[in-house]
Specification:
Strands 1, 2, 3, 4, 5, 6, 7 and 8 form an 8-stranded mixed β-sheet that branches. The radius of gyration is 15 Å and the shape is globular. 36% of the residues are buried. The N and C termini lie far apart (36 Å). It is built from 6 helices and 8 strands; from the N terminus they run αβαββαβααβββαβ. It is α/β, with parallel strands linked by helices. Helix content is 31%, strand content 25%. It has one domain (3-174): YbaK/aminoacyl-tRNA synthetase-associated domain (YbaK protein, Alpha-Beta Complex), CATH 3.90.960.10.
Amino acid sequence: MSNNDVRKPVFDMLDLLGLEYGLLEHPAVFTQEDSELRGIDSEGLSVTIYKNLFLRNKKKTAYYLISLPLEKRADLKTIAKMLGKERLSFASESDLYERLHIRPGSVSFLNIAGAAAANPDGWEKGSVKFIIDKEAFTHEHIGVHPNDNTATVLLAPKDIHKIFEHYKADQVFMELG
């Protein structure tokens, strides 16, 4: 599958919702260190790049996609406590693919578009809870992967709500880290 094929559901959704966005192409980014080394050029825009973690609860009955600024540290114990869970750990690659139809390295809340496109019966509401650091709303733009780690989509934070509303996604905005 080409980069354009995996990106298509994201761009189709953004266009359908009438959202303005930018796109930055770059070499593949797999880790926070890769992001820092790449020095993604936002062409003069004020952009905060977001990292994403796919987590699960101890019993593997609840899954969470956590999005927070690259420079913040994700304290899993604190996040678990905030969610009223005993503990959180990283979900498996197969769980990631089953729920968001994506492979490691390309995780972001925009994966919801690809997951919905891959499931013609509709997005399974509640299969993943999306948790976004509310600091996003203090930034002009945030940058996340469009189902592909060789590009970054630049979005206005106010548009995150529109995306989640479109898919009736389970989401929460909270202070992380």
